[in-house]
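User: My collaborator sent over this chain with a note saying "see what the structure looks like." That's all I know about it. Can you take a look?
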Amino acid sequence: MRWSILSVLNKAWDSYYHWKREVIMRRLLFFCAICLIVTFLTGCGNRKSEAKPLPTIAVIPKGTTHEFWKSVHAGAQQAANELNIKIIWKGPLKEDDREQQIQLVEDFISRGVVGIILAPMDDTALRVPVTTAKRQGIPVVIFDSNLKSDDYVSFVATDNYRGGQIAGEHMVKLLADKGRVIVLRYQEGSDSTIRREQGFLDTIRKHPQIQVVSANQYSGPTTETAYRASENLLAPFKNTKGELTVDGIFCPNESTTFGMLRALQDGGLAGKVRFIGFDTSVKLEDALRRGQIDALILQNPHRMGYLAVKTMVDHLRGNKVPRQIDTGASLVTTANADQPDIKELLSPVLHP
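Assistant: Without extra context I'll predict from the sequence alone. Here is the result:
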């Protein structure tokens, strides 16, 4: 009898033990499953937060203060946003500081950017760093001003010589094919403005009755240096009454145009001489509408910045890109200033 009771108790214990172990195992399996799910979800979250960084392209203008460059920046940033890449926009503090621009290119090479977009302030001085970038496997797109080199992928810019020709053709029309003309140049080594100046002068020289009486004065990099250079240039061409003895003036960029405008305004001469400038700003547009400037040759800086970035990205993705891209130039006068396409150029987007 005693052994029967013990046998029953042993069987009961065995049943309880197996039941308990099964419960524990089920709970353990459930706990493990929860852990796996949590680990998976956390891992997905981490992978999302640790997404691969966007490829970085350096964009180096000649400067950053003129409204022209602000519009270029806006176009470049728009392209970057659309193409899902990152740009670093950084230019020299002064537009005549070649050494700083060279240093910027060298710094970006060291940082290992995937591409460099450069507006060289000197068509010769920037050749070596551009060659270095190419050797390091970093492609370079040149914009605004050309470079005396074959080591770049593409050149995105205004047809600057044609822009100068357009200015010259309009000056001939304004002067009725006779008169005396002066040119305030920008600065030596700047390919874009050199070509504009040459296009203007070549056009004027086809008309023997128009005399170029000064074309060897340079403004320097800022509106202040341009203002002082303008005053010095105008001084020998004033008679005893303070009137100008020249009939036409051409300036090849924003800073020279504004510096000359200020000098003419301060001397009471604005609107009393035919004046054609290049590029735009709020003050230059106002002077155009008031008759103090006869015409402006306008580029499309927003389009230039946009296409420079797009061209670089196309190249990086293995697409064939044109060696040169013309972004256009337009003659603007009071007669067409309110046309929608021209108004866009007169008042460009200035913020990226």
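A starting point for your reply to your collaborator: The first strand starts at residue 56 and ends at 60.
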